[in-house]
Amino acid sequence: MSAVTQRLIQAAIDASKSAYAPYSNFHVGAALLLDDGQIVTGSNFENASYGMTLCAETVAIAKANSDGQLRAIREIAVAGGLAGHVGAAAEPITPCGRCRQIIKEVADLTGTDIPVHCAHAGGYETFALSELLPHGFGPASLK
Ligand code: THU
Predict the structure, then answer these.
(1) Per-residue pLDDT averaged across 116-139, rounded?
(2) Predicted local distance difference test score (pLDDT) of residue 75
(3) For the chain, how big is the Rg over CA atoms in Å?
(4) Which of 51, 60, 64, 141 makes an SS bond possible with 30, Cβ 3.0 to 4.6 Å?
């Protein structure tokens, strides 16, 4: 694993510790690598009205956008289902369908097939966004 990937995954793991997930107790963290090496993180934010929950990836991307950094995103790491929490698994968790669509916006804006590093208790697996969301609908579809 490259040092940068390791740093990004560790940032996602650390971010999962700030998850607000009293309903599922499934803690997820996301970390975005920006083109200047900075990292922006997010964690899942649940709500008593369950369907209003925001996923970690969406929180992180909205945070980067509000800092004027949407177009600077190059890679994403997601960590969830870690030991000690609900869902601890040997398999990586991958972004939900809605988050894949949110990441697609970034991929199209930046012209980068964003690598998504999916971490879990035993390691990580990397998928390109185009693998997670083939034939996706994006900004180019509206032209
Ligand atoms: N969750 C994420 O934060 N990201 C994903 O990609 C999958 C699911 C959160 C939403 C909810 O708070 C909890 O995990 C269980 O679904």
Answers:
(1) 93
(2) 98
(3) 14
(4) 60
Q: What is the pTM of this model?
A: 0.94
Average pLDDT over residues 71-97: 81
Active site residue 105: no
Q: How many CA atoms lie within 13 A of 24 on its CB side?
A: 20
Please give the distance, rounded to the nearest whole angstrom, from the Cα atom of residue 81 to the centre of ligand 1. Answer: 10
Model confidence at 85, in pLDDT bands (50, 70, 90)?
Answer: low
CA of 123 to the centre of ligand 1 (A): 19
Structural tokens at position 25: 């107790």
Architecture, CATH, for domain 3-138: 3-Layer(aba) Sandwich (3.40)
- Can you state the angle between helices 97-110 and 56-66, rounded to 10 degrees? 30
Ligand 1: residue of 16, 53, 101, 120 to mutate (most ligand atoms within 8 A of CB) is 53
Q: 12 CB under 6 A from ligand 1? A: no
